Amino acid sequence: MHNFVQFVVGGLGFGGIYAFAALGLVLIFKTSGVVNFAFGAMATVVTMILWTLLNHAGLPFAAAWVVAMAIAMAIGAATNLALLQRLHQSSPTVQIVLTLGLLILIEGLAGVLWGYGPKSLPQPLSGTPVSIASFLITPNDLFIIGLTIVIGLVLFVVFEWTRIGLAMRAVAADREVAALMGVRTRRYVSGAWAVGTALTGVAAILVTPALSLDPTMMDQVAVFAFAAAILGGFGSLIGAVVGGFLIGVGSNLIAAYVSTNLQLTLIFVVIVVVLYLRPQGLFGVRATSRQ
Amino acid sequence: MLRLRGVSLSFGGIQAIRDLDLDVADGMVGALIGANGAGKTSVLNVISRFYRPQAGTVHNDEVDILKLKAHQVIEHGISRSFQNVALFSQLSVLDNLLVGADHIARPRLLTNMLRLPKARRHNREARRRAERALEFLGIGHLRDRPASDLAFGDRKLVDMGRALTAQPKLLLLDEPAAGIPASEHAALAKLIREIPTVWGSSVLLIDHSMELVLSAASHVVAMDFGAKIAEGTPDEVRSHPRVIAAYLGEGADGQPEGRRPSPAAQERRPQRSV
Amino acid sequence: MSEVSVSPVAGEVPRRSLRDRRTLSRILPAVVFAVVAIAFPAFEGGDAYVMFTATQALVYGLAIISLNLLIGFGGQISLGHAGLLAIGGYTGALLAIHVSGIPVPVEILAAGAVTAAVGFLLGLPTGRLRGHYLAIVTLGFGVAVPQIALNWTSLTDGRTGLTVPPPQIGNTIFPTPTELYYFSLIVLAVSLLAIFSMLASSTGRAFAAVRDSEPAAAAMGINVTATKVVLFTVSAFFAGVAGDLNAHLQGLVSPDSFPFSLSLFFFAAVVVGGLASVWGSLAGAIVLAVIEAKTSSSSGYEPVILGGAVVVLLLLLPGGLARLPATVLQAARRVGARGRGVRHAPLETP
After folding, report:
1. Torsion from C-alpha of B20, B24, B28, B34, nearest 10 degrees
2. Left if phi > 0, otherwise alpha if psi is -120 to 50, otherwise beta: which for A235?
3. Nearest chain C CA: its distance from B269 CA (Å)
4. Among A79, A136, A150, C131, which is least packed by CB within 10 angstroms?
5. What is the reported pLDDT for A247?
6. ipTM of this predicted structure
7. How far is B173 from chain C (nearest CA, A)?
8. CATH of C47-295, one of 1.20.120, 1.10.20, 1.10.510, 1.10.3470
């Protein structure tokens, strides 16, 4: 039993990472209705930039992180303005194809600019595992968990209880009507893209010490993030956080009791099962049909 | 012969159809009229099994339609057009019509992939039916055009053509005159009148245009807030007191003018003290 | 159902003259492709690497066409097509290795059938899904299959992979690049015949109907969910055939042969070549094979070119490469009309 709980605790760190990635995905989807398939690749680029800042500009970690976040926001907003705005009237298929094209393009650019050789980044918080209630957990994992919960709550509060959040919800519900009501829709959608990209960037930065940094690093994480978003309900910020932790813990349990190599496969099964049994996930809203 | 008995449909707190009885006899052109929200399209959607009514029965020649799935309705002789003209926009006009004929003796996948004689025969036969419909509607010259390329009026004809190609016993027409200039309603009515003789199908059409209904249909049912308020020949219905009351008289163009509040709204009004 | 005869004119099928533009636009690419494809080895047959690339183009062609069936003709999405190729490849390899002397047509049909069965299973739950949910599920599938191959070491030798013997019929083996090329060409041609027949039939029309309007399709007697499942199954069958060909071409199947990026490249090729255009997909396949041959994966330009092409094309030329001749013609016509001082002619459909 003790081992089981230890495995659960051990999965929380990755859980927070998946939660961040899912938050970024869900925030953009909630506001603009687009699933940004390139979200992982964009986050990888942000991480590559961080790596460059650390190793070639000699910046201290915290400062580099802040700069990287700012750049992430710029990338997100720019992508929306340059491309998605043009196509926000188009069918979902067109948008999917576009973000997939971006995925290929951005991964390729990352490869051209930084090469395919793996790189490494330090953990934000180093240190040996500490013991809490007889379970071991690293300071880094505690940091990740805390950060995830704090950011998740902040986002939730902003979205539900502030005027900015209200405007974003209006844009999400009906962009045309919101515009007619005087909401500067482009501003809010770009803002969501900016913040969303930064959030996924955080996930990439936090996951790099465990995987190694190369252009396709986030491909795997993306699958887990999708699973988290779907499990939580694609459109619920709280769901993204809860889903992220559940997937993180779940995949750690799979690694411990079945095999590390089958994590992706079983998570894929989870996705299918959830979509088949309860498509709205844990916190989503069920669309009704009349038959 | 189509028979609706006691059909009631509600969704989202709205009663779309109340206890409706409706018959469409063989060889007849029947019409359902009523203002927006009267429940007309809902009736068609119940017959074509897009909606499930909370109460009532629907039979076509002894077949219990409510036991069928949406894609099985056509096999029992009922086809339809759509108010929003749901064409297969990336297909040609001819291909759109061919889909209508495909349900008749549909070949299996392998037969089609190997181009066995059965598949070729099916295509030839479907083509023959489609050409007949194109000829009847006068749109043969459009057969190779992509459906998305057409003017609105032509698209409506393709929609109708697709339903006709299916060789139905009963053809449901959902607002065939909507978006068509009034000057063309007479021609459209003539076309619809000919369907029973040329195609052997009965017709149930719904529309706002009184002119179309008067000249095309032999039997009219008037609805208001989901319930039937009058039934009979076009002249009988148009002069029926309840129909007139529902529309506060008709304007010069035969369209209803103004409305009185729904029964539910009337109940909510505060009572005046006497 | 009674049928009343009308005038003698009604019901006659108009005959198409050979000069009819539509028929020409269908036959011409086929003829051009056939001539080029058959004559090609006469010029380049000596160069093994060129023959390899050409065969790769043919194999990719079938893979991309099978994906286009799903996306362009059927209106669905799949980001896991490499997974289907993996199943076809492994099935073919295992049969070739363990069933000595298996005639290659049997092997190919078996590989296709097994992959079709998997496609069927994949299609069952996805019948309900659309848009990004469908994309995500298929993405997961495409990632899961190589993982399973990696772990099922008793069957697949894990990371090492399986060495694939050359295809054979009876006592005849096709080991040389040119023989493999012609063999792949024959398989592609037969597949194309089947696919074209299917597309021109009630099945093909059902796919398109479901793509364009599900309610109307249902009203016309099409079982929408069943049609989607059939679509996945057929697409998977040809993907499995392509996977088997690919296995013989590469000589090896291993989990590393089917990364997520391969699924993405196929997807990009479908879009770049043109949705619902078989010849466009072949063109896309040739482009893909050539780029792959000219660049190595470590230089990384392949994804940049492909990804950039997708993005640019979506913004400028939504119809893909297949629409390019038509778009160029229209533009030329407009320029010509202006030059003659005539108001520009109404747009004709190509």
Report:
1. 20
2. left
3. 40
4. A150
5. 93
6. 0.87
7. 13
8. 1.10.3470
